[in-house]
Design brief:
Blueprint: H1 2-14, E1 15-19, E2 25-29, H2 38-55, H3 72-90
Antiparallel strand pairs: 1-2
Helix pairs in contact: 2-3
Keywords: Membrane, Transmembrane, Transmembrane helix
Organism: Poriferisphaera corsica
Protein name: DUF1232 domain-containing protein
C-alpha cells in the first residue's frame, strides 16, 4: 500500500501540465534532474573561482593588450561570463532567464 502511494506521488510530481496548440491541457512527463558527481562539482567550483578572479581584473587592463582594441577586447570577458554561468548551472544555481 505504501509503495503504491509513493509511486503515485512520484508520478504526480514528475508530470507537468502544458497547454497544447488547441488550447487543451495535456500531461507531459518531466524527467528528474540527475545529480552531478563530485568531480563535476569540483571542476565547476574551480571554473567559478577562476572566472570570477579573471572578471575582477586585478591587472587593470594594463597587461592585456587586446583590451584596448574594440570588439576583440570584450570577447575574453564574454568567454569568462559564459564559463561562470555554465559552472553555476552545474552547481545548481539558476539565474533569471535560464529556463527551468
Amino acid at each position: 500500500m505504501m509503495r503504491m502511494k509513493l509511486r503515485w506521488r512520484l508520478k504526480k510530481v514528475n508530470d507537468m501540465k502544458r497547454v497544447n496548440d488547441e488550447g487543451k491541457h495535456e500531461v507531459v512527463k518531466v524527467e528528474p534532474r540527475k545529480k552531478r558527481g563530485l568531480i563535476a562539482r569540483l571542476i565547476a567550483t574551480i571554473g567559478v573561482f577562476l572566472s570570477v578572479l579573471f572578471l575582477l581584473n586585478f591587472s587593470f587592463g594594463v597587461v592585456e593588450v587586446p583590451d584596448n582594441l574594440p570588439v576583440i577586447g570584450n570577447l575574453d570577458e564574454v568567454l569568462a561570463c559564459a564559463i561562470l554561468f555554465s559552472c553555476l548551472g552545474v552547481l545548481g544555481i539558476r539565474l533569471p532567464g535560464q529556463g527551468r
